Amino acid sequence: MRKVIGGLVEKEVLTRRGGAGTFVARKVEKSFSKLSSFSEDSSARGRRASSSWISRAAGTVNPEESMSLGLSPGASVYRFHRIRYADEQPIVLDSTTIAGCSLPGVEAVKVSLYVALEKAGSRPVRALQPSRAVAFGTDHARMLGLDTDRPGLLIERRAFL
């Protein structure tokens, strides 16, 4: 128990006050100084990330993408759709659209989009990431091996250089 408490004091989760005792630190923070990818998050949890491609293609922005990404009409984009796995268990349906200037081509992405973006000098450094609960529709549930209307989490990440 002493070793565990000592470790928590070193990590600044607990504080010791001589003669008073050991207390929970006022604030416990996780560092978000580096925006991480699914592959990096999986690895940090001791899991192996992999993907199966649904599609990947080059195209031009649609009106919604143009507004969301701040791109001019007719700008080139790359669209990636895949199922992400952690230790071979399907976890994420990933749909990504990025500006065409961010990568040399769709083939640049093998397993990790963030690795490809980093190699191209376009790795995002910050993001807005709202999330909300959703029910999986028939197609999405089938892709993940779930029953229709099972609950899921929709996360929309808008990343910036």
Task: List its salient traits.
161 residues, alpha+beta, Chorismate lyase, 2 domains, three-stranded antiparallel sheet, two-stranded antiparallel sheet, 5 helices, extended
What value does the average pLDDT take? 87
Assembly level: single chain
Q: What is the structural class?
A: alpha+beta
The number of domains: 2
**What are the segments in which pLDDT stays under 50 over at least 5 consecutive residues?**
none
**How can the largest sheet be summarized?**
3 strands, antiparallel
Strand order of the largest sheet: 3-4-5
What value does the Rg take, in angstroms? 20 Å
Q: Alpha-carbon distance between the termini?
A: 44 Å
What is the chain-wise order of helices and strands? HEEHEHEEHEEHEE
Q: Count of DSSP helices? A: 5
| Count of extended strands | 9
Which term fits the overall shape? Answer: extended
Q: Provide the CATH top-level class of the largest domain.
A: Alpha Beta
CATH topology of the largest domain: Chorismate lyase
- So, the CATH homologous superfamily of the largest domain? Chorismate lyase-like
Q: What percent strand?
A: 35-45%
**Estimated helix fraction:** 10-25%
CATH architecture of the largest domain: 3-Layer(aba) Sandwich
Describe it:
By secondary structure, the protein is α+β, with helices and mostly antiparallel strands. It has two domains: 1-29, no CATH class; 31-160, Chorismate lyase (3-Layer(aba) Sandwich), CATH 3.40.1410.10. 23% of the residues lie in helices and 36% in strands. It contains five helices and nine strands; from the N terminus they run αββαβαββαββαββ. It has helices at residues 2-10, 38-44, 63-69, 113-119, 138-144; strands at 14-17, 21-24, 49-60, 76-86, 89-99, 126-128, 131-135, 151-155, 158-160. The protein has a three-stranded antiparallel sheet with strand order 3-4-5. Strands 1-2 form a two-stranded antiparallel sheet. A two-stranded antiparallel sheet has the order 6-9. 10% of the residues are buried. The model has no long low-confidence stretch (mean pLDDT 87).
